[in-house]
Design goal:
227 residues; two-stranded antiparallel ribbon; 8 helices
Length: 227
């Protein structure tokens, strides 16, 4: 089974980060009965000094190079990933997409309706590449801008409603979709280092959201035990 992480700055991570991708790889290693592979066209972390994804300095030295693969980018969202996902799935033969996107879109590029339309396009393009692909999609989680900007918070809430509707509309037995739950105890003052990007505890909570969704929805792996 091949898993691909798709996300923005919270998923790619910056130089020196451990990343929630590492926590998820640990979970899959411990809980899956059969072999699996992490796939994707990128392996880099974001170098904040260079302002580009040029770093390979992961904070977890035991994170093997093949498991560092992903399709994530600092400042990239549904708008950017929808045109890329078809080729990425084709080239990697991905079976499961673990997707965390939306904050960047709403913050800089598109409103909730446009962002939802791009999410639907993403699903369509992924299925063109693999009609049996599975996807777990995470709503936009709490962040510091939503705490202080009421109109932005309203757009986040609206997008999350539209994402849930899109998943209900597009779910199909041959290519199932799951909506991961908001991490129930996620606290931006404890689980992030800047109000948005996850700290160690936040990384575990993001990994748990995906792991528990797959365990409960598909019986895949176990409940997350790495907190």
């Amino acid at each position: 089974m091949r898993f691909m992480f798709v996300g923005d700055s919270m998923t790619i991570g910056r130089a020196g980060d451990i990343t929630w991708r590492y926590r998820m790889w640990q979970h899959l290693t411990a809980s899956l009965d059969g072999p699996f592979e992490i796939v994707g066209p990128r392996t880099e972390l974001y170098d904040t000094d260079a302002g580009a994804p040029l770093s390979y300095a992961y904070g977890a030295p035991d994170f093997p190079a093949p498991a560092r693969r992903h399709l994530s980018g600092w400042g990239e969202g549904w708008l950017h990933m929808a045109p890329l996902i078809g080729d990425a799935v084709t080239e990697s033969a991905a079976d499961v997409l673990l997707v965390s996107l939306g904050l960047i879109d709403l913050g800089f590029y598109t409103d909730s309706a446009q962002t939802s339309a791009n999410a639907r396009t993403f699903v369509t393009e992924a299925r063109k590449a693999n009609p049996a692909i599975r996807m777990v999609l995470l709503p936009v989680i709490p962040n510091i801008r939503a705490e202080s900007d009421a109109p932005f918070a309203a757009e986040v809430a609206r997008f999350n409603e539209l994402l849930a509707k899109a998943i209900a509309d597009l779910d199909h037995p041959s290519s199932p979709l799951l909506l991961a739950s908001h991490p129930p105890t996620y606290d931006i003052h404890q689980d992030t280092y800047d109000g948005t990007h996850p700290s160690a505890s936040g990384e575990h909570k993001l990994a748990a959201a995906f792991a528990d969704a797959m365990h409960q929805g598909w019986g895949l792996g176990g409940a997350y035990g790495g907190r």
